[in-house]
Specification:
This protein is mostly helical and 82 residues long. It has helices spanning 13-21, 28-38, 41-57.
Length: 82
């Protein structure tokens, strides 16, 4: 999600209430455009192919969020939670 474009990112209940009050400011065409650029089956399949190609080529460099591949994830390693 892109804050103010495809919705609002909030940290707490007060933020959620404020976001609901201004949801009418979100342009539905921009929401659709953002979705089509980031979450269509074709786009996501291309991201998976990019990952698989890197794995097969055995490149040592780790995937970076800035590469555009799965940049929407923020997964914490289980080893960091203990």
């Amino acid at each position: 999600m892109e804050d103010g474009v495809s919705g609002y990112i909030v940290a707490d209940l007060e933020g959620a209430l404020a976001a609901v009050r201004k949801i009418g400011n979100i342009d539905r065409k921009q929401v659709r455009k953002y979705f089509e650029q980031n979450f269509t089956a074709a786009r996501m399949a291309q991201d998976y192919l990019t990952i698989y190609e890197r794995l097969v080529s055995r490149k040592k460099a780790p995937l970076a969020a800035s590469s555009g591949v799965l940049n929407w994830t923020k997964i914490t390693s289980p080893s960091n939670t203990t």
